[in-house]
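URGENT: need a sanity check before tomorrow's submission.

F., can you look over the 4-nitrophenylphosphatase record below? I want to be sure the sequence and structure line up before it goes out.
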Amino acid sequence: MFDCDGVLWHGDRLIEGAVEVLEILRKRGKRILFVTNNASKSRKSYKAKFDHLGVEASVEEIYGSAYASAVYISSVMKLPKDKKVYVIGMAGIEEELREEGVSFIGGTDPADCTLEPFSLSSFSLDPDVQAVLCGLDLSVNYTKLSKAFQYLTRNPGCQFLVTNEDSTFPSANGLLPGAGAISAPLRFALERDPISIGKPAKTMLDCIQAKVKFDPERTIMVGDRLNTDILFGQAGGLATLLVLTGITSKQDITGANASPIVPDYVTQSIGDLRVVDGQ
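C-alpha cells as predicted:
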C-alpha cells in the first residue's frame, strides 16, 4: 500500500525511481494499492493524474479519503436516500458522493463559494441535512463554515465528519495547510471532535478490506508521514516503511525529540528499492 503525495510524486513531479519500483513489484506478482488522504480528487480524477505522470494504476487500486467518506456515509451510516450531506470540499468529494447515491448540498455550489458577508437572516436551514462532511477546500470561506456550524448545532443528530485530519499537505513548492486545518475552526467553535475517515483511522482500512482480500502479515504500508501513514499501517497490523521525501525528516525519528511512532523500515526515497531488484 502506497501513499502518493510525498512518496511517488511532489505536485506534478515524479520522485526519481518511483515508476521503476512499481514495475519491479508488479513483475514479482505483488498486489499494489494506492491509499491517499487527498480528498480534492475522486478516484477517476486521481487516475487521470497517474496517467499524466506515467504511473500504472487502475481505478480499483486507488483508495482516497473522499471515496472512503462516501462509502462510510452510504454503507456504515446508511444515510437514507431522502437525507443530505452538507459539504465543505471540492469536486472530488461531490463525485464520490454522487457515485454512492448520496445527496448533498454546499461544496462547489456558486452560492456557497462567495466572499459576500454571511447573514443568518437570509439563511434557511435544510432539515434533511443529517451530516456535515469537511475535506480540503481551496475555496473555504465564512459562509461555508457558518452554514456547517448551523447544521451541526440546529439539526438534531447531524453527524460531524472529516475526510482526514492532515494538518498540512506537500505541494511541489512546499507545505500548505491540509484538510485538518480547514475543519479546525468548526472544531473550535463546536468544542466537538469529528469522526475522521482517512488515515490513520481504521475506517479507511475497513473500506479497503471490504473490496480487497489481503493478509495483513504480508502487507506493507509505505508513506512519508508518521502520524498518518505509519500509524495507519501499525493500527492495521501491517509492516511499515517510511520514506524521507515528504513530510517526515530524519530529525523526526532520531535524537532526544524523536516521535514515539517508530516505523519498521526507513529509506531516503522509494527509488532506493531499485538497488535490491534481482536479490
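My own read: The mean pLDDT is 94. Helices lie at 18-27, 43-53, 65-76, 91-99, 142-154, 179-190, 202-211, 226-235. If you see anything odd, call me.
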